[in-house]
Amino acid sequence: MDELDHKKEPRKGMSRRDFLKTGAAAAAAAAVGADFALHPASASAAPVAETYHTTCPYCSASCGQLIDVDATGNVIDVYGDHMSPLNSGGLCSKGAGGYQLVTNPYRLGTLPGPHPVNNVFAFDSAFTDGVAYKRTGDGPWSKVVLTDAMTDIAARMVSARGPVTPANGHNSKSVAFFGSSHLNNEQNFSYRRLIAQFGTSNVEHQARL
Fold first, then answer.
1. Phi-psi region for residue 88, left (φ > 0), alpha (ψ -120 to 50) or beta?
2. Cα–Cα distance between 127 and 111 in angstroms, integer?
């Protein structure tokens, strides 16, 4: 026989030792998860006053979400809805980060830190109409009144678009827009008309990128 036939081939798949080690790790993780579920106070100090059913806002999958709020209406947790036939409680990384969509300190109109009383982010009284952040080059970020920021953005968009004339078919190639897979037909129709009125046909769908 060829001497190669006597060589032991490498083992394929999971060994018994690996199986036992993986099983032990899974059991430990399940125990931690069960303890966390049995002690909801460890998740949030505020008691849950009401739970709302909603859907994730990020894409057209419409995964179910549950939102827990306290007695004053502050969001204290966002998680998957196990009764939803679409996701059975599971969420992708974007949906799982839904809590920060509400409480992120950099959200428009919020203070850069928690409120000293109820530990939630509150609106800055100096920017009652909203606040944006802007910086020039590598300089520091500074607060800008939201209406001023929107005016600045609109002016820069028109400048980037350039002139829209019959010579170019009223169709600028210098700007482009993204659509959203979470908009319904009527919203997409209005959005597409706005883009056409702005002067371009460069529209791409965000789910394709």
1. left
2. 10
Res. 186 pLDDT band, cuts 50 70 90: confident
Handedness of CA 167, 173, 177, 179 (dihedral sign): positive
CA distance 76 to 6: 64
Predicted model pTM: 0.47
Among candidates 189, 185, 163, which has minimal Cα distance to 174? Answer: 163
Asked if residues 63 and 95 have their Cβ atoms less than 8 Å apart, the reply is yes
Domain boundaries, the chain: 45-103, 162-209
Q: 45-103 has which CATH code?
A: 3.30.200.210
Question: Pick from 54, 52, 32, 53: which is nearest to 43 by CA?
Answer: 32
pLDDT(98) > 80: yes
